[in-house]
Amino acid sequence: MKIPTDYRSNPLLRISYSLIAPFYDLVIERPMRAARKQSLSALTGDKAEKVLLSGLGTGLDLPLLPALHHYTALDFNAGMLSRAKARGANLQVDWILGDSMALPFPDAHFDHVVLHLITAVVPEPQRCLAEAARVLKPGGSVILFDKFLRPQQRAPLRRLLTPLSRRIATRMDVVFEEVLLAAPDLQIVSDVPMLAGGWFRGIVLHKMK
Known about the structure:
Blueprint: H1 5-8, H2 11-40, E1 50-54, E2 70-75, H3 78-85, E3 92-97, E4 110-116, H4 125-135, E5 136-147, H5 156-168, H6 176-179, E6 186-195, E7 200-207
Parallel strand pairs: 1-2, 1-4, 2-3, 4-5
Antiparallel strand pairs: 5-7, 6-7
Helix pairs in contact: 2-3
C-alpha cells in the first residue's frame, strides 16, 4: 500500500521512527502501561464492536485490549506495524499501512477510535481528529491518550523545542481544546490528567447522533 503524501512531506519523521522502532518499547512501555490501561478501560462492553487503532505504533495497547472486538490497526511506519503484529496474535486484527490524517475508510465505519500518542505526533492534529470523527459512527467514542497543553498555558520550553521535536518524534505544543474545534460533532465525556503533572491526559469523546 502506498504511504499517503502527507508523510512524504516530512521524510525525517518517517526515518526517525524507523530507526527508533527497536528501542521504542524500552523507553515507552513501562512508564505508560498503567495510563494506557486506564484509558482503554473505556472499551469494555458486552458486545463485539469495530474499533480503529489509529497510529498503533509498536502495538503496546494490544495486550491491554478486550478480545471480543474486531480491531483495525493502522500506522504509517512499516517497521512499527511489523513489531506490533506479534502482540496482536490473540486478537481479531486487520493490519493497515496508512495515514491517520487521511484514513482509507468510509464515513461512519467504526464504533470506537483509539488515538494513543498519535495526535501530537502527526503534522496536523486537527486533521487527525477530524478524520477520526468522520469514520466514527454516530453514538461512538474517540479514546485519546496524549500530551496536550491547556489553553493559555505558556510552557515556553516545550514550545521552544517543538520545531525540532516535531521533525524527529513528536510535537510538544498541541492544545487539545484548539484541536477539538476541527470536530464539532464530538463532545467531551471525560478528561483526566494522567502523567507529567497533567501534561498527559486521558480524554473520551462522544459523537453526537
